[in-house]
Amino acid sequence: MPKATQIVLAHENRPGLLAQIAQVLGDAKVNILAFLTTTSASEGLTRLIVDNPDSAKKALARTALRFLEEDVLHIELPNEPGALAKFAAKLADKNINITLGYAASERGSKKTSVVLAVSDLDKAMSIR
Questions:
Q1: Separation of alpha carbons 3 and 73, rounded Å
Q2: How far apart are CA 36 and CA 74, in angstroms?
Q3: pLDDT in tens, 72-93
Q4: 22-56 burial string, b = 16+ CB within 10 Å, else e?
Q5: Contact, 1 vs 77, CB < 8 A?
Q6: CATH number for the domain running over 72-125
Q7: Beta strand segments in 79-127, E
Q8: Where along the chain do its domains lie?
Q9: Residue 128: pLDDT band by 50, 70, 90 thresholds?
Q10: How many C-beta atoms surround the C-beta of residue 62 within 10 A?
């Protein structure tokens, strides 16, 4: 299973923040492959998978945005009922906990792009 660098930005919860993040990355010619933004009261977190993590980190470092990076699984699953259940069960069988997950697919597409933070990335990467 492929490992990916996830960039996690901590920021205030206000209109335009996602647009600002996307603009910084767009100006640096960094493509966002997946993202998840969550908020709680006045704070927010945005998690990004990008096509060029090094360029993204350089671009973000020039801003006031705080960020860190972490390794996650970035996999493709069949876009069909039960595919996530099968994969999640394989992780559970190896005692690997999923601590965060997000996915996106388009109706009619054959694959779903899935991002998972897991308790044992090295072990999870060997699961097929």
A1: 5
A2: 13
A3: 999 999 999 999 999 999 999 9
A4: eebbeebebebebbbeeeeeeebebbbbbeebeeb
A5: no
A6: 3.30.70.260
A7: 98-104, 111-118
A8: 3-71, 72-125
A9: confident
A10: 9
**Looking at the domain covering 3-71, what would its CATH class be?**
alpha beta
Distance, in Å, from the CA atom of 91 to the CA atom of 86, rounded to the nearest integer, reads 9
Alpha-carbon torsion (81, 83, 84, 86), positive or negative: positive
Helices (H), 30-94: 53-61, 83-93
pTM to 2 decimals? 0.91
Which token pair is 79? 């876009």
DSSP, collapsed to helix, strand or coil, labels residue 115 as strand
Distance separating alpha carbons of residues 115 and 74, to the nearest angstrom: 5
* Token duo for residue 13: 């919860």
Kindly give, in sequence order, each residue whose CB lies less than 8 Å from that of residue 6, ignoring residues fewer than 6 positions away: 47, 48, 49, 69, 70, 71, 72, 115, 117
Instruction: Look at residue 43 in the predicted model and tell me its pLDDT.
Output: 95
